[in-house]
What we know:
Strand order of the largest sheet: 6-7-8-3-9-10
Radius of gyration: 18 Å
Structural class: alpha/beta
Strand content: 15-25%
CATH architecture: 3-Layer(aba) Sandwich
Amino acid sequence: MTSAAIDRPAPSTGAAxxxxxxxxxxxxxxxxxxxxxxxxxxxxxxxxxxIMGPSGSGKSTLMHVxxxxxxxxxxxxxxxxxxxxxxxxxxxxxxxxxAVGFVFQAFNLVPTLSALENxxxxxxxxxxxxxxxxxxxxxxxxxxxxxxxxxxSQLSGGQQQRVAAARALASRxxxxxxxxxxxNLDSRAGAEVLTFLRRSVDEFxxxxxxxxxxxxxxxxxxxxxxxxxxxxxxxxDDPTAEGVLDRMKGFDGKGxxx
Length: 258
């Protein structure tokens, strides 16, 4: 499959998003639960980062706070050079719309719209004209050009999730956050989505941060961050599924080496 010619961004360095001293506590007093405990992390531009950890480790909370979907109890979160904790609600809404893409386990497609209309929906709502060359490149990369007029009910689960991923990339965001994007898919459909996310990094220079529990999914990333009890307990570059699984088995319930 050949992608349409697009103006790909030059390689860049530095963090697309970062958190400094991030703490998130739910509840108060004896019922308080610390979901994140003094987390400092950088998500580098043009890289695919996976966040892994057992249930309750804080991985989804970390993603949600870094994406501006939830607030920090203490600490600072940046998208690029913008401090999210200093923004008013309307400013935060605009930043999420213009600078951040989202892919969730649920596809969140509008059933009455075509695949193409779902892809361009965020820009249509914002009153922005799409960069057609860029959108064409994304569409060719997901491999669904012949299904663009189909509604979600006429697409398979994997095709729907690829449409959702294309929607996240269509506005050329600074960073895309994906929360268990293959959780509702079989292995073949999941591989299709992960291959698209991988290609978006390699070919478009996109930045992806993905929460997953699946070592195979994590193997598509450049870098893996392991969480336990709200803290980063380990990292891995150039992961393989076997290496990630072995690393996960090597921790006890507190995230310590067993």
